[in-house]
Amino acid sequence: MARVFVTGGAGYIGSHAVKLLGEKGFEVAVFDNLSTGNSSSVLYGMLIKGDILDYETLKKAMMDFKPDAVMHFAAKIIVPESVEKPLLYYENNTAGAINVLKAMRETGVKNFIFSSTAAVYGQPEKMPIKEDFPLSPINPYGRSKAFVETILKDLSFAGDFSYVSLRYFNVAGADPEGKIGETKKDATHLITMCVRTACGKRDKLFVFGTDYPTKDGTCIRDYIHVMDLAEAHIKALDYLLEGGKSEILNCGYGRGFSVLEVVNEAKKVTGIDFPVEYRERRPGDPARLVADAEKIKRVLNWVPKYDDLSFIIKTAFEWEKKLGSQS
């Protein structure tokens, strides 16, 4: 089986991809500095502690493992933080990705799967969002990822390098088997915060902005279950290993839910009427992001299994309850 080098594989999304890789028989090396990841979330392969900004350690780890492909998850992802600390995001997300790509070149690895984001689109005028829409990110997080996509296009054009860039929409939920889930204490995902509030781990849930031009004034997002996203990475890997050409693909379901709809569904699923406080908008948040997901279904033959908001919330809630019982 192919060998896959996974940066950020101890983190939330990366660990779910590693679980699937291991279950499908791939040989895996996880490279993670454990700043937000958790070593106990790495269920398969070897874990190498290291930072993508430490080029020599990164290059040595890749050379020792000799992968057939790299999945690059390691990144900072908090939009408001990126507005406050843009250099941190350009250094980690853009310069860090360049380090990974340089190490691949030194090692002769030609297949790359990149964690991109819907934030590269900014605030599109039309919905749902197609991959060929112009990129116009409105925050440093989105720009840091858009810069990497430009580099990937140039590398692919230069030859002997292929990539799939997966533009994530809002990732949520946990492994339905309950083995792994979100472990980051300061996670900012809405569904994670809903279930943590329901479990009593937070005093209240904050909703940022009620005056957006949407049906109830709150932001609308396309929520995708983390295991469906992990499956998209496996499909992208198979596609590249079989000689597929470079592609950029949206990862979402093509349906949007407002923040209030998610909050109300979370109260229903958990059976707990947890407290909610409404606050001003956060900087850098677009009003509406919904994917057109037809291309990924066509190119990768990706078929989502968990396209159900209640199920997504349920898996997140079960995981939080399990975490609570272990603490």
UniProtKB/TrEMBL annotation:
Keywords carried by this UniProt record: Carbohydrate metabolism, Galactose metabolism, Isomerase, NAD
Enzyme class: isomerase
GO BP term (any one): galactose catabolic process via UDP-galactose, Leloir pathway
Entry EC no(s): 5.1.3.2
Recorded GO MF terms: UDP-glucose 4-epimerase activity
Recorded catalytic activity of this chain's protein: UDP-alpha-D-glucose = UDP-alpha-D-galactose
Domain of life from the UniProt record: Bacteria
Positions of transmembrane segments: none
Domain called NAD(P)-binding: residue spans: 5-307
Pathway: Carbohydrate metabolism; galactose metabolism
Cofactor(s), names only, from the UniProt record: NAD(+)
NCBIfam families assigned to the protein according to its UniProt record, in alphabetical order: galE
Quaternary assembly: Homodimer.
Family: Belongs to the NAD(P)-dependent epimerase/dehydratase family.
Protein name per Swiss-Prot or TrEMBL: UDP-glucose 4-epimerase
Organism: Thermovenabulum gondwanense
